[in-house]
Amino acid sequence: MEKDVSEKTNIASDNVAVVESLTKTLEIIIQNGRSTPGTKQANDVPVNYSKYK
After folding, report:
1. DSSP string, the chain
2. pTM as predicted
3. What region does 3 belong to: left with phi over 0, alpha with psi -120 to 50, or beta?
4. pLDDT at 51
């Protein structure tokens, strides 16, 4: 990050495992309606994160 402080370089293709892990975590958060421990909740709005892929 020190080399690209403004974050203009997309390094996702160089870090596929990290991207897959973060994507799975995001999917779980969306499914659970929360990022903290506890019972599942409904999301306040429809979530379509795939449009950002």
Report:
1. -GGGTT--S--GGG-HHHHHHHHHHHHHHHHHT-SSSSS----SS---GGGG-
2. 0.73
3. alpha
4. 66
